[in-house]
Design goal:
By secondary structure, this protein is mainly alpha-helical. The chain folds into 2 domains: about 1-5 and about 40-105, no CATH class; about 125-215, no CATH class. The protein is built from 11 helices and 2 strands; from the N terminus they run H-E-E-H-H-H-H-H-H-H-H-H-H. Strand 1 (about 15-20) and strand 2 (about 25-30) form a beta hairpin. Helix 3 runs antiparallel to helix 4 and helix 4 (about 65-80) runs antiparallel to helix 5 (about 85-105). The chain is globular, with a radius of gyration of 23 Å. The two termini are about 30 Å apart. The relative contact order is 0.09.
Length: about 220
Amino acid sequence: MIRFLSSMRRAPHALVVPLAGGASLLLLLLSAPLATAQDPIFKLDPTSRRVVDLVMDSAMAERLPNRSILSRALEGVAKHADNRRIVEAVRRRLISLRTARTRLGNVSDDELEAAASVLEAGAKPEELERFRVRPQGRTELEAFTVWADFLTRGVPKDEAFSAINKLWQDGADDATFHGLWTSVQADILQGLSPGTALQNRIRETPQRSPTTAGKPPEGP
């Protein structure tokens, strides 16, 4: 069986050259050796490449964003991580994507990826459920992106969730989340502890009236 990753990366180029008498010569320029030399994913050993391939196939079969799996693999290659850690990372991303969709329902691929990053940064799966009910047209992408960044910067997990959840329930828009992130990041760079920076800035964030609860996304 032709695997998804392989077919995605090794499509040969073809040239049709007309010959005298109307005949044609089909020249296949096999690009696999060139792809092997140029494509970072081929720096993995064959067994690890096959695992990445299988994980991507699983994501595609489950209608999960398999680009997120590939991105994890390429990130590991770029950081010169060993093959074992790269394989662990792509498997963990698949599990995180599954969990995110179970908790949030059928949201966009971008939101699923952001939610998976939140989980991998240390958030609890049940915390995602607080974001399942939302007004039509509202997206969690910015909230999740800021949340994950806070966790990676060392903001205590409970404090990060409390702040993001409060803003979300109060109806904060993307600009509010981004403004909070910018301010907290600046304070951390100035030497303030991540938790203190967030607590100080969340108190300064303008309050909004809570939005009317919408219909939760349908489950997978």
